[in-house]
Amino acid sequence: MREAIRTSAMDPRMGKIDMGLLNTGTGAGQCKMRDDMHRELLTMLDGGAGKGRGVGWGDAMKRLGEQSSIRVDAAEFSELP
User: Fold this and answer.
1) Between 51 and 2, whose confidence is greater?
2) What Pfam families does the database record attribute to this sequence (predicted)?
């Protein structure tokens, strides 16, 4: 049973068991990263990068990637609310 939990609930990024993976399919680390990306995207849009003219999807993803220590995944970026 322990091995089954370890196999199914191991967060590959953190290297720790995360029961959120079993409950919701999304680990705590992934939720935090998604929230951080969302917050930074809103800051980017409010802070001048897109003042009145918007920001292209590719440009926004590139800017987030430049300021992040973790690679910004296109699939995760596209799921931001």
Assistant:
1) 2
2) WHD_MCM4
